[in-house]
Amino acid sequence: MKIAVAVAGAGAMGSRVGLYLTQAGQDVVLLDDWQMHVDTVTEHGLKVNTLGETETYPVSIRNFKDYSVPVDLVIVLTKAMAAEEKIKQLMDQGVITEDTNVMSMMNGLGHGDLLRKYIADDKILLAVTMWPAGFNGPGEVTLEGTGNIEFGRIDGTVDNFVKELNDIFNEAKLNGKISDDIVTSIWNKALVNCCFNTYCAVTDKKIGEFGAYVHSDDMLIPLMKEIITVGEQKGAKLDFDATLNKFHAMYSPDVVGLHYPSMHHDIHNGRKTEVDFLTGRVAEYGREFGIPTPYCDILTHLVHQIEK
């Protein structure tokens, strides 16, 4: 099956997803507002660094404002704080129609509620990905490690499009998996990002470097317990022991140990981070439920302190 896909946000993860789908024969366009990035990829292709080797690949990319072709699927990979504006823009320009499926693959919490303001439930897809990716500058990304894309309808329905999209992801070697509990899947990913995006940003370390610190578990465990307690109140089924074991496995250079999380890249490139949709959102939910979240609170403040 071949579908028309618009990847909204051509940063590190958008570039990975768009490139892999393009190489698998799908009709893909990357959309971004940064004209220098758009021009560089258009003229020279997308430069990909992997374990010290560099290759350049052709991909289709346009500025958001210059694209008005309806598509079958929009994958939203903008920064969380820009998502609503971009969804409305794509609707106004006719890219998103009543027949378009819209998938949020963004980091953080609360994106399903945002999509429901504009998109029918039977066209909403929520996704989490564990693929690592780094953005080096206009037209250049670092793609290393392994990962998958776990996704599902917001209402849990597994329809023909969901099944076909899973096949497409697997053909593109993106390792698709249809989730039987997308709420838990989202919170599991948020748990990873709340811990490693924040800690690696404020310590200026790669994931493996953070894990090499002998007391890293003493930093992780109380933060994990806060997030799990709040997540349970939102309907997520989170396993503390399994998550901690997964974290330890992530330190390997063969997994994501060599990777700087996206928040680290944001800090060092002078961009606003998504911390308000991670530890900040957990703290917000915690206040609603009367659950103290001191680790989430202080990490949110620390990240804002170092934002430029």
Automatic annotation (TrEMBL):
GO cellular component: cytoplasm
Main EC class the enzyme belongs to: oxidoreductase
GO function terms (MF aspect): 2-dehydropantoate 2-reductase activity; phosphogluconate dehydrogenase (decarboxylating) activity
Gene3D superfamilies with a match to the protein in the record: N-(1-d-carboxylethyl)-l-norvaline Dehydrogenase, domain 2 (1.10.1040.10), NAD(P)-binding Rossmann-like Domain (3.40.50.720)
Catalytic activity: 6-phospho-D-gluconate + NADP(+) = D-ribulose 5-phosphate + CO2 + NADPH; (R)-pantoate + NADP(+) = 2-dehydropantoate + NADPH + H(+)
Pfam families hit by this protein: ApbA (PF02558), ApbA_C (PF08546)
One record GO biological process: pantothenate biosynthetic process
Domain Ketopantoate reductase C-terminal: 181-307
InterPro entries xrefs: 6-PGluconate_DH-like_C_sf, 6PGD_dom2, ApbA, KPA_reductase, KPR-Related, KPR_N, NAD(P)-bd_dom_sf
Residue stretches making up the Ketopantoate reductase N-terminal domain: 5-155
Residues that span the membrane, as ranges: none
UniProt keyword list: NADP, Oxidoreductase, Pantothenate biosynthesis
EC number: 1.1.1.169
Signal peptide location: none
Associated pathway: Cofactor biosynthesis; (R)-pantothenate biosynthesis; (R)-pantoate from 3-methyl-2-oxobutanoate: step 2/2
Function: Catalyzes the NADPH-dependent reduction of ketopantoate into pantoic acid.
NCBIfam families, per database record: apbA_panE
Family note: Belongs to the ketopantoate reductase family.
Protein name: 2-dehydropantoate 2-reductase
Species of origin: Macrococcus brunensis
